[in-house]
Amino acid sequence: MLTVSGVHTFYGAIEALKGVDLEVSAGEIVTLIGANGAGKSTLLMTICGNPPARAGRVIFEGEDITRLPTFEIVRRGIAQSPEGRRIFPRMTVLENLQMGSISAKPGSFNTELERVFHLFPRLKERIDQRAGTMSGGEQQMLAIGRALMSQPRLLLLDEPSLGLAPLVVRQIFQVIKDINREQKMTVFMVEQNAFHALKLAHRGYVMVTGKITMSGTGAELLANEEVRAAYLEGG
Ligand code: ATP
């Protein structure tokens, strides 16, 4: 479904991605783990075209999307829930979800809204609340819900568990599993919480300073000595 090949991304003179290759197949949950600053968020942003890759290609469903503007990439079926959630704090829950549906097929709004409320009943209870006044966990639910409103076939999640209490982390991961199983949604997820993320994922990749250094099934990576020492210490 998604093929990233030989991707290099720069911020000015800084080379954040140094030739990244990876694949995500339809129906999978794939997790990318790596230390702070490895380039994980940059990869998700490059898939969405901002910043675009300077070299290499991003192919989605057989089509080269490397140089497309972000709105075109969203229209083709990719949505991202960004790091730090980036919900619109002054808007209500409903308004945030409406923003997410801008590039969806016309007439689909109510169906998608019901689907999101089914996954996150809390959002339905808080429909008129200003998003900025919600808890961290609720804001994360809203960010994922907003991404789902565009009816993506590939959902990109940047650190969905960041800063959340353990119980809420479990809820969020459970919902990711449900979306994947029930809606057959393909998920590519960046996570610091390597243990939970690899348990959930079908496959995983490890990134070190802008390069993929390891890949395998979630179970293989969880059992790998290097991964355990670097990312699961004490876990
Ligand atoms: P974290 O887990 O801490 O979010 P990450 O693996 O997602 O880290 P990135 O945020 O992709 O890493 O950053 C990769 C590198 O690119 C880092 O060295 C970072 O300082 C640099 N970088 C990221 N964004 C910018 C920017 N807008 N301008 C300049 N450099 C940047």
Automatic annotation (TrEMBL):
Gene3D superfamilies: P-loop containing nucleotide triphosphate hydrolases. CDD domains: ABC_TM1139_LivF_branched (cd03224). Residues 2-234 form the ABC transporter domain. The keyword Transport applies. It comes from the Bacteria. Keywords: Amino-acid transport, ATP-binding, Nucleotide-binding, Transport. Belongs to the ABC transporter superfamily. PANTHER family: HIGH-AFFINITY BRANCHED-CHAIN AMINO ACID TRANSPORT ATP-BINDING PROTEIN LIVF. This is ABC transporter ATP-binding protein. It comes from Azospirillum oleiclasticum.
